[in-house]
Specification:
GO terms for molecular function: transmembrane transporter activity. The chain is mostly helical. The chain contains 26 helices and two strands. The model has no long low-confidence stretch (mean pLDDT 90).
Amino acid sequence: MAAIKPEDISHSPMDQLQGLEYCIDSNPSWVETILLGFQHYILALGTAVMIPSFLVPSMGGNDDDKVRVVQTLLFVEGINTLLQTLFGTRLPTVIGGSYAFMVPIVSIIRDPSFAMIDDPQLRFLSTMRAVQGALIVGSSIQIILGFSQIWAICSRFFSPLGMVPVITLVGFGLFDRGFPMVGTCVEIGIPMLILFVVFSQYLKNFQTRQVPILERFALLITTTVIWAYAHLLTASGAYKHRPDVTQHSCRTDRANLISSAPWIKIPYPLEWGAPTFDAGHSFGMMAAVLVSLVESTGAFKAASRLASATPPPAHVLSRGIGWQGIGILLNGLFGTLTGSTVSVENVGLLGSNRVGSRRVIQVSAGFMIFFAMLGKFGALFASIPFPIFAAIYCVLFGLVASVGLSFLQFTNMNSMRNLFITGVALFLGLSIPEYFREYTIRALHGPAHTKAGWFNDFLNTIFYSSPTVALIIAVFLDNTLDYKDSAKDRGMPWWAKFRTFKADSRNEEFYSLPFNLNRFFPPS
């Protein structure tokens, strides 16, 4: 028997992910670009509808208010996505709403000064203005850390080993929005999950005019089929005698978005009135802004890999965080009821359809702005039952998590030190937030429950986030445990060449500012 060569049983580490049809600066035809952009827009609707649908009723708002918030959120998402792809990291990332802001926003909603207001509409407006004020103040954290390049300095302590748990839990940390939501309506969630996997993976070689149409447009095709199937079930009376929870999840006519949406409505700043400011609310919101910063850092690194780009240099990453801070400021000015972060599901879609083109994401931003102004048409697409989105999340969140695991190729996983750090950070990154979630469900408040509400919000928000917990643990252990003699094991020699803009010639291709703006903002 012939001797087995080392190259036959191992794979060399690769700076850029291979196998993508289009990378960050290559573009499909305009027809494909428009369809792919529309696909990203459809995917972004899940979070854009889910967050207001949960928060607005608890604030005293009605269906009209919910539709206005959804429209405003989509409008600002479109603007923020354009800003990020033009002037931020320039990675093909959709900037969407964030669940990280739920804890401080729910705390504001439960504030006794608002809960005692009898008029529901006045309570809604008062709460909305308080959330706006907190977002405006909180946005300063990312603006300062980003544009001052402080986050670039902090990122010097990040190694490939330290980033593995963070990027992995950006995907795995959202597990409660996957199959648990599919299970709320299995008759449409399970078929959607199976059909999406079959189209995007098993039938990916089916081509029409040399275009792998089933792989590239799997989300659009399967969503249309299952949505039509769900509408057929609704129209036939299949849910007529089912519990309200099932009807709300399964029916295509329960969101009340289409009937409540205006034909044309252009969102504008301060349309809910002048924001109000409270130190306690603002401090709690700052924690959510920090969580958003960590989650976006992991998502940016995942997006760079799925766009077949090199890892973003420290100053580019910091620049992107600064522009995301501007995005959160816009969230506060417009009143979107949440802050901004990189949309993890849209990052996953880059890998699923193997198209990492920046132009596609910019087209999707155009769809967000356009349909946010044409209310009825946008509401039609926003009425897709959430289990359909959840089924897609099961695949896309897992794909993003696997990108995080792929960074292990640059480290030495025969090192007990590395195994310890990776395992502990991954486990506690899942376990600690799960403890906080279960405690909150049982006690109706977080484990941090002192008389200082701002302190409670800060701690509960931080430890509710899996990527944030993983970052704290992984980076601390990685920089204190035998760190002097383990640079190679941590992957630092590979990482070092991407720290600065000029260290690798590919950085200019991927991350240079448009319109020759590098003349005025020279990269470091």
